[in-house]
Design brief:
This protein is of the alpha/beta class. About 40% of the residues lie in helices and about 20% in strands.
């Protein structure tokens, strides 16, 4: 089987991909990692997500944690190096040059693992099976961004992880597998996200084995049960803090 991975360099993607890469290195033909966003997009990011969203403290802490993580061997980069897997860095996965590279690998499946770019139609038809995304909720509930923030903000007691096919919608593709993850009273966004990634890692390995055995069963999402959440606002952040919730 030929597998391509789209991801970012973060501690969460490392947890999600570590076992898959170590167990199936010969099947993974290439890893495409997002480059940092360009200046114009960075300005939009700061206005929308930092100033109007979760604030400077959260994103500064995330930046520092990411920098420290990159100084260790617990990175996707090091996993690729150890297993002799080609790694590519791209600011635009939908660019013609990227599409050409992906096509040349003739992938059976592409895995979108904690990836931060929108995958457009030019890529969707390339892999034989499809593109698999790992979403941090029990779809169709909590479609959209930052589901871990929202389940804590809404005082949920259970969340989960979903493997689903990527289609032209946002988190609307057929469900491949799901796993419930309990939410503890002591959970922060960070601790909950890490447990979700551990659960996703287990599902991902099972999924690849099922695809190889032609035993993968797809399930349509029930749109009547769906909920969608966008970027948190300052008011959402205030409520999050009032409820005693934490980022780290």
């Amino acid at each position: 089987m030929n597998i391509i991975i789209f991801t970012v360099e973060s501690e969460y993607s490392y947890i999600l991909l570590r076992d898959l890469i170590n167990q199936k290195p010969k099947e993974i033909k290439g890893i495409f990692v997002s480059k940092p966003i360009k200046y114009k997009k960075l300005i939009k990011f700061i206005k929308r997500k930092v100033v109007s969203g979760l604030g400077v403290k959260y994103y500064l802490a995330r930046l520092i944690r990411g920098f420290k993580q990159n100084q260790t061997e617990s990175t996707v980069r090091e996993l690729a190096k150890k297993n002799e897997i080609p790694i590519y860095y791209t600011a635009d996965i939908n660019a013609a040059s990227c599409i050409f590279q992906v096509q040349n690998y003739k992938p059976d499946v592409i895995i979108s693992a904690y990836f931060d770019q929108i995958i457009k139609s030019g890529l969707l038809t390339i892999p034989t099976f499809g593109i698999i995304n790992i979403h941090s909720s029990l779809l169709p509930k909590y479609r959209g961004v930052k589901p871990t923030f929202w389940v804590l903000r809404n005082n949920e007691t259970v969340t989960g992880v979903t493997l689903h096919l990527v289609d032209n919608g946002l988190d609307t593709g057929d469900i491949i597998d799901q796993k419930e993850i309990p939410i503890y009273s002591t959970d922060s966004m960070d601790t909950l996200q890490k447990r979700i990634m551990v659960g996703g890692s287990q599902l991902l390995i099972n999924c690849i084995d099922n695809i190889k055995n032609n035993s993968c069963v797809l399930k349509k999402q029930n749109d009547t049960e769906a909920s969608y959440y966008s970027q948190p606002t300052k008011e959402d952040l205030k409520q999050f803090i009032r409820l005693g919730k934490k980022f780290w």
